[in-house]
Amino acid sequence: xxxxxxxxxxxxxxxxxxxxxxxxxxxxxxxxxxxxxxxxxxxxxxxxxxxxxxxxxxxxxxxxxxxxxxxxxxxxxxxxxxxxxxxxxxxxxxxxxxxxxxxxxxxxxxxxxxxxxxxxxxxxxxxxxxxxxxxxxxxxxxxxxxxxxxxxxxxxxxxxxxxxxxxxxxxxxxxxxxxxxxxxxxxxxxxxxxxxxxxxxxxxxxxxxxxxxxxxxxxxxxxxxxxxxxxxxxxxxxxxxxxxxxxxxxxxxxxxxxxxxxxxxxxxxxxxxxxxxxxxxxxxxxxxxxxxxxxxxxxxxxxxxxxxxxxx
Length: 312
Prior knowledge:
Elements: H1 4-52, E1 55-56, E2 69-70, H2 74-81, H3 83-114, H4 121-133, H5 136-146, H6 152-158, H7 174-199, H8 203-211, H9 216-227, H10 229-244, H11 248-254, H12 267-277, H13 281-306
Antiparallel strand pairs: 1-2
C-alpha cells in the first residue's frame, strides 16, 4: 500500500506535471494566431510564389497554379536577358547607392544634434521625425508640385538665372529628384534609431575621456562610433533593404509607367507591372526571387564586413 507521504508526493508530481502541460498549452494558444497569420500571409505566399516562378501563369487563365504549364528555368533566364529589367536594376542600385550613405550620414549628424544639450531639442526631434509619419503618396504628390515647371524649385533657381525645368519629365533629373524626396522623408526614422544607440552609451566614458584630455572629435571617433556599430549596422541593413524595394515613390511620380524612358523604373515597379498589369505572374515571381537573392547576398556580405553575430 502507498503511505501518506508517498501519496502526497505522487499528487504533487501529478499536479506539477498537469500545471506544466497547461502552461505549454496556454503558451501555444497565445502564439497560435501569430503562427497562423505568418503561415497564411508570409510563408504560404512565398511558397506559392516560388512554385509560380517555374510556371507560365496568369489570373486570366482560370486555372490553379498546379495546372499551369511548367517552363522550368525559362522565367529566370528571361529575367537576365530582359533589357527593361536590367535598366530597372541599374536604377534601383543607383537609387540605393545614393540614398543610403547620404541618409545615414544626415541621420547620424541629426541624432548627435538632438542628443546634445541645445535648447529646444525636443522640438527639433519632433520636427525632424514628422516627415517619416507622412504618407509616401502624400509626400510624392507634394514633391510633384515642388518640382513642376512653375513649382517652388524652379522659382528658387530663377533667382540665380537658372532656366526652369520639368524635373520629373526629364530622364536626367527624374531619379535624382526621387532620391532627394526619399532622403527628406525617411531620414528622421534613422535619426531616432541612432539616438537610441547614442543614449545607451554611458556618460562615464565621455567623462573619463575628457579627464584624459580628449576633444570632441576624438570622443566621436574613439567612443561614439565604435559603440554605435550595432546600431549603424542595423540602420544600414534596413536602409539598403528599403531602398532596393522602392515602389510607391516611383509609382506615384511616373504614374506607374517608370518613365520617362524608364528613368524611374525600379525592380519592384517592374515586378508589379509584369504581375498585375500584364498578368505574367510566373515571370513576376521570378523577378521577386531574383531580388530576394540580391538582398540576402548583400545582407550577408555586410554582416561579414561588420562581423556581427549571425541571425541565421
